[in-house]
User: Fold these one by one.
Assistant:
Number 1:
Amino acid sequence: MLLDATQNMLPEQAPVLQAIRVIDQAQAKIALVVDAKGRLTGSVVDGDVRRGLLHGHSLQTPVSDIMHRQPYTLPVGSTRQKILQAMQVLEIKQVPLLSPEGMVTGIAVHDLLLGLQHGQRPNHVVVMAGGKGQRLLPITQDLPKPMVPVGGKPILEWILLRLRHYGFREFSFAINYLGHMIEDYFGDGSAFDCRIRYIREKEFLGTAGALSLLPPGDAHPLVVTNGDILSGIDFGHLVDFHAAGGRSATVCARAHRVEVPYGVLQMSDGCLQGIVEKPVHDHLISAGIYVLSPQVLPRIPQGQALDMPELLLSLIDEHHKIGVFVLEDEWVDVGRHDDLERVRRSFTDQG
């Protein structure tokens, strides 16, 4: 969606004060400076105004004195994917689109391209919360793993709050083992300022099979996360990364280091060629968080068990584009007792 740029355009001789009013009042927070023929000659955003005033310019200074003279633009007719990709790379939120003559034809705005309204994202989120959590026995004997408390709240509530912080409001929880406890706690989501629906598995369907039970027709990429993952990930950035790349799926990855505590023998034809003492190997592992484009969901067999690696490998076999989003934030798979204790200690240390 493009915005009409008329209310954002200023003549070169307009005062800085007028640029401030445009930035404050217009939907796209940018002033576009044009010459007498209406051709773009520069742009002004909030940072340009602050720098200009710091350098001694006044509110009556011509806007041409403080404008950015080489703003990033794209030609009219640029695809949504190309615009989003440029925004991601350059870390900008709006891009003027120009005619071949240099006339402003509109402004592409990041949030509007992604369908965001009032900071809310239209993407649906599915949390896989149906596993038995056998590695956390006996804690999970009478408690589903996503409901295990950490820092005074269930793991699943921390996941929900993180996603809600980034504007997600539509959730489905895939439940099975002791799923009624999850439903009783979260209800329809209204107490958490969101909407929660439930995918009730009759059999264990793995980490992807439950997606076949979603209602069809969602036009936006789907976020999928395991129900035992605590992470500092920026989910909004993840979805933007996926959308900008024209990908069928995106996998979140986490760096994992394996240290061998022994000398490793290097052999050839039964003879020792060398010894590597305590080698270290770095790998990228799946972080249990994914984004799937709408065209992927019909490929999931209805009501059959399927794990996410199987789904992703089938997409690779069919030559789909799969992105990898590398996490640099805190990340914990709360799947074992030592992981759980480590997370609980970190909450205690934070007070």
Number 2:
Amino acid sequence: MTFTSPPGILADMEPVVLVGFVQPILMLILTLVWAWFVSDKLDKDATYFHMPRRQWNLAHIIAACVALVIYLYIPQVGPGSSFWLNLPIYAILLAASPLAYIVVRNKKVPEDQRITVSMDKIRGTLEQRRKSKAIRNAALSFKMADGTQYQTPPRDDPAYTVHLGAEEVLLEPLSSRASTVVLAPGRDGQYVLQMVVDGVPRKLQPPQSAPPADIITYFKQLANLDITDKRRKQKAIITAIEGTSQKKIKVVTDGSAKGMRLSLTIDPVKQVNIKVEDLGLLPPQRKAWDELVENGRGVVLVSAGPKQGRTTTLYALISSHDAYLTNVQTLELELERPIEGVRQNVFDPTVEDTDFWTTLRAIMRRDPDVVGVSEMVDPETAKQVALAGLDGPRIYFGIRADNSLQGLQKYIKNVGDPGKAAESLTGLVGVKLLRRLCETCRVPYQPTEEALKKLNLSSSRVKQLYRAGGKVILKGNNPETCPECGGSGYFGQTGVYEILILGDNERDLIASGDLQALRTELRKKRMLFIPDAALMKVIEGETSIEEVNRVLRAQKKPARPKTTSSVKS
């Protein structure tokens, strides 16, 4: 038997969609989010606060089942159905048990552990996200002088362009191993930006994002300095943060008729914190250094030009003494770095009726074993040092001079009497800084006979020297800028020293004022002067002839050694 349908009925039938494509996906996502929140967050929270964990998990499951049944009971399609009404109802039913758990647990946990929702908290979270976004867009962030995190201005804040200007000042120096950055007005009134890398200044493109004066004010704000005072010298330490790297930055500002000046010293403590073995002393000089330290009496003059290692050398000499077995003190104009166990006295010029030399005299009355004096501020300071005598404490006396004999001349002149100046002297130390050749790209070469003669060297002794390269050969035999030194051919600095030990004979020559005879006597004892030490570093391949010539030519031409009468006048 065959059944047939009337032809008109089939033709009028339309397909019915029982389950849509979007609805199950949205429901699944909502269910997974609920499951993650309940199992990962609430379950752990219940365990931590000793809530009835199993009972609450059972309550969550029952509530979810009820929500699912109600969701499925409500028509999803057809007459009277509304998916966009059903889904919110399902979400509310799912959230019922977690909300009930939060209400109950808030009554049993400490107030600071409660889960709360307020408009102030929401606004605070949104504001923090806005600030975090600004920080993510900025390359640098800062900690202020008091250690608090400085909130980087958001992109829609006018101060954000000033922050970008501060980044223009610092980013390249930070990536180029710079020690100092200076932003100062030039001769034509336009600001000039330069950094110092391995002791050599290098000009940079001035900042374009904001006016230099605004950038200087920005750094003063970071350092908690007085932004209204545009003339007086002010300084403080801040921290620059780039990714995971943090660098201490010493901010120094002052002003003149031309405008404000900004100096930034990167890692200032690290620059003067160098161990004795890393100073660059040659073996015979290290022996003389140890001999000076062991003697422990009399005055040792430490001479160097500006930014040439005087402070580093002074600190290294002071650190060579055991501060726990001896009374070690310093008198400094500015504390460059703390020295463990040493009483460091910083002179305060704002204190009335107090001078640098009277402060030194007060220190000497405390019977110290070792005293470090950072500067020869005035003749009275030099005279106070000269009073120590050979049996007095060891005094390391810093003097601004290109070498040890020039420093000695200045000392004698300030004491006013070469005899008195000579009485307590036991040593002279001089230092200059040379750039080290980059070991990645330095270029070996065979010097000519003529070049060796100028250096008083024989071809039998020296077969090979090195010069700066700046390029390396990589793929395809094409020279490229050395990634280690950035193309300069040099990486880092080393000290070249003269460590001169003085005995009775040398003190007599100083008292007579015949410093030329003193030089001759010291050479007889094979003591090395700065040019000698520099030449040995050239032979060892640590630096180049060009670098030695650059540094030694830069120093002032030494004055002709004076006689006794000329010194007194």
Number 3:
Amino acid sequence: LNAGLNVKDPGAPKFSRGRDGDLRDVWRKAVSGDTGARGRLLTVLGSENVVEHKMDDINRQINIIGRYIAEQGSIKVAIYLPNSIEHLISLLACSFYPNLTAVLIPFDVSESELISLLRRSAVDTVVTATGSFPLDAVVNAYPSLRQLIWVVDEGSRHMDWNDVPEGMGSAVNVTTWQDLLNDTPAAAGTELPASEGSTGAPGDIVTFWQGKQGELEEMVRFTQANLASGISGQIAAIPTRERLTQADLFLPAESLSNMHTLTLTLAALYSNSSVAFNS
């Protein structure tokens, strides 16, 4: 078993043992590349439309979303999204900004199951896709929800998604991902918060595991150290000549709310492979 990623900080003695690391180190490695070569992040829409995401733009979104969630006083952030760049950004935002626990909700579950998962994990914030989240029903059954960020697809951005259903009052603060980006100056920093210092250690990640169909999901909490060890183990388990490199393209076909899928995807990022998302 590998304890971690053996992250060597600049200026560290050559033969010293590196840090175990966390998701912030995974992303920094993906951005910096390995000996100057780095992979690409892609969204595949249909059979022909492929969108490439610039690393600086992703850094900007991590900063905007993470800062907003933290400033709202959020503690537990549910990510209820299909496989997408926004899913990855939300997870990284919870890692780069302090006191945030990411809760990965399996996507496209039934309404009653969704409410049960939100209640059991005691989330106060949800990042979700429009058309996939029954806001009225959730708020009526789970009044502890305080923040909602809609991820709106391009074809629906002309609509006003900031309104709350009648009778809900101001219990839930609703905004959209795109509005947060548009309301922030384009020159807003792409420099991510430092990994060490006042930000402290990043928060845990909560997932749900279902052994058999129809069984109640088990809620499992992973520390960042657990995840770093898992990523390192997945990389080390593959013979050196067969390991992922910047020449490879990785497509997570299973949901990123599945911890094994997420770990392999993060291992691909850490290995500077290209990663494609297709929900």
Number 4:
Amino acid sequence: LQDAAPTHLVTTAELAPALPDTGAAVLVLDDPDTERELAGRPDTDPTDRDRGGPITPGHPAYTIHTSGSTGRPKGVLVPHANVIRLFEAAAAHLDFGPTDVWTLFHSYAFDFSVWELWGPLLHGGRLLIVPHTTARTPREFLALLRRERVTVLSQTPSAFHQLIQAEQEDGAEEPLSLRYVVFGGEALEPARLRPWLSRHGADRPALINMYGITETTVHVTHHRLTPAAIDHPGPLSPIGT
């Protein structure tokens, strides 16, 4: 809130007391006066005149902070056009569609969540929000992937290694519906994927290593891992171009 310096805060009666005093005007959505005011408003989308001007692709879509690995985390303003560019570029390599089920595994404070949120929404798929405790319990998460027939999974390598271990310990033969596993957020060691490769192969799901930084909007490189890259990895994992 200090970085954003908002002029208005939109909240609920339950959450309002927890907000710091920023000097911003506070709109409490479930306040009776607010509810009466909203009930008299149109239920259609606002026009450019209502907004005070047109929204363009260059307008900010969100502010998200860097990891702070070189100091204090910095807020990055990311425009709508960058998010569209992300998925237009991905379309040349990945075939997403309305039958896909994506997980929202990561915190919305981590830019991997932008990929997880807008991927299904832009392609007409289904977004599955993973409960906090499930995301931190690999066996529960594995069961959720099977039960909900998840097809697109985005993971940091460290989280995926825990999932591999959970599947090995589980021993069940029930198949997964995954089409893609997308790695990001950390360096990937291909050799550690051998247990997964021996069970699932490298085609379904396809294993995709992607790389990017907050300022470039999630991912900017793409590399599809092959059995050769996993069985005989070099000193560094390819991150593509």
